[in-house]
Structure formats: C-alpha cells, structure tokens
Amino acid sequence: MIPFIAKQDQLEQKLAEWRQLPESSLMKVEHLLSFTGHKVYAITISDFSIPREGKKAIYVTQPHAHEPGTTAGMVDVIEQLLTGRDLLGQSCTFDREKVLESTVITFNPIGNPFGRENAPELYYDGTKYSMNEFRCMIFGEDPENPGVQWKRVDIWDIREENAPNPLGIVYEPVDEFRYVEPNRHQLSSYFKLFYQMDAQYQYNYWLDLHQMMFGQQDAEQGYNCIIFMPYPDNVAPQHAEENSRWADDITKVWLERGFGAKPPITTPYTDIQAEYFRRNYAEINNRMSRITTEVVTNRTLFPVDVQVKAQSAAIETTLARLLDN
Fold this sequence. Notes:
This protein has 325 residues and is α/β, with parallel strands linked by helices. The chain has a single domain (8-117, 201-322), classed as Zn peptidases (Aminopeptidase, 3-Layer(aba) Sandwich). It has helices at 8-19, 68-83, 96-102, 113-117, 131-139, 189-201, 216-220, 237-256, 271-285, 304-322, and strands spanning 27-33, 39-45, 56-61, 103-108, 155-157, 172-173, 178-180, 205-212, 225-229, 265-266, 289-296. Strands 1-2-4-3-8-11-9-10 form an eight-stranded mixed beta sheet, sandwiched between helices. Strand 9 (225-229), helix 8 (237-256) and strand 10 form a beta-alpha-beta unit. Helix 2 (68-83) packs across helix 10 (304-322) and helix 8 (237-256) crosses helix 10 (304-322).
C-alpha cells in the first residue's frame, strides 16, 4: 500500500525530511497561521535558479478535512518532484526536469488543519462508517434530529445557531464565534493563503482536489472519479475551452490507468450552494483556468490506494500537459 500521509504531524515530519534532501533548494515553504494556531502550508516547487518570467504557475489545493486522499496524493507528487521517485520508489511518469525548469507549482496540502486534526480516521474506505454516519461526521448531526446531517452553509455563528456537538469537521473556526466551510467563504485560511501566494506567483491554473462518495449505482458500476468544471456563466470563454481540454486529458489518463472515470461535467450544485461558488470564484475563473477533481471516498468497493493514485495521476497529467501548452 502506498504511504498515506494526510495528518498535520505527518506532513510536518515529511517537510522536515524534504528540507534535508540535496534537492531542497527546489522547495520553498511558507504558511499562514489560522485562528486556531495551525500552520496552513504553501509548498512551492520549481527550479528557482530560473526566473519566474515565462514559467507557467499552478496552484494545487484541497480545502476539506474529510477528504484526506487529496493530501496523500499531493505528498506523493511532491516526493516525485523533489526526488524523481514516488513514495513507493517508482520513477515519476512525467519529465521532471522540464517541469521544474518551466513551471512553478504551489501545493496547499491541508486547507483546514483544525478539521483534519479533529477527524476520527486517517482515511475512509467504507468499512467503519455508513454513508449517513459519514455525512453526520462531516457536517455534524442535527441536534434537533438525531441521526440526521446538520445543514451545510458557508458561514455560521455559534451565538445564533443550535450547533452540533461535536461540530462537523468540514468547518474551520475563523474567530471566537464564527465558522466557515473553507472553499465557500473568503474568511477561510484556504482563500487567504491563495491570495497571499497568488500575489507572488500570479497563477495561470488552479487544480482543486476533492473527494466524494458517489451514488450506490455509480459505485456498483465501477465509477470512482470525475472532473467538475465551473459554471459556464462564471468563467471567461478562453478559460472554459482550456478547462475542457484539461479535464479531458485527466479523464483520458484515468481511464488508461484503470480508474472508473465518468465524463467531466459542470459543477452539479444548485441553489444556495451554487451561489457560494459563483460568489467566491467569479473573479478567479475569469483570469485563470480552474477545475476540480472528485475521487471516491468511503466506499468498500474501492481500496484506499485508489484515492491516492487517482489524485496523483490528475496532478501528474496536469504537469505533463503544461509542457505542451
């Protein structure tokens, strides 16, 4: 089994190891401090002896505490970029030297360390939680309706809500009273770190890594990954075209490597959830290409290696295609 590195202490141990490598000059590590005192890391990889001008820059992220396979996939690719080999010791599948020479890649491996540290498991493979139990763990259990998932909102205040206890791990506290879902509100560490790093590198691409449970029928048919693209009314035409080609490339590689990839689709959220995305990403979608991976989680039909390898493949494919564009 591929090493599954997803907790904050695991990441920090790995950072300490990377800093001791002869190739450590290829890495710059920055962070912001969350309200809870956690370091939210930005790990930037490139050949910094070559100026930023002319390089393509990509931001690779994950905002959700309950989606640890995204972190594990990122760590595997960072290992490849620094050493030329993945965490199993196998040679990387892309032209590492050209990637380092011609791109800048920033990773935010744990967008919500507070939530991740409060997560009950390292990963989720469907053996410990039913889907309903999993959702209640993510969002909290409605205190007025035991066994029912609490609501999903961009921001809420404990002074105004009869909140779950314990809280759902999806949420990040941003002050003494307020909590946000990281990819749905600008007060999150996830967004604050993006703007901090974007000011330095002016990213051309944003690859956002996620996991979802997939419906029972999809799971039984073997589907375990899909690409979500921004709403058509929320993205510049030139980026919409690039997003489509990019999503097709990843989907093709997923299929070639034996994953059960569904065709890319527009982000399927509607109503207020769709409004959150339009509100937070409109300006971003109009100045860069951005897509979202969704890889299976909490399904007994799929071993945990699927989670890591599918996310790694999405990042690797992205890096390889940047060399041709």
